[in-house]
Amino acid sequence: MGLAKGRKALAALTPEQRSENARKAAKARWAKTKNEKKEE
Q: What segment(s) does the record annotate as region Disordered (predicted)?
């Protein structure tokens, strides 16, 4: 059920909103990778 709701929410977003969400997610992934390398 959750996936269906997520897809509807995603479909309701504008292309600009989806792009911003993707940009934030990528930034968070890269920050996580950098932090893991610093700990080694």
A: 1-40
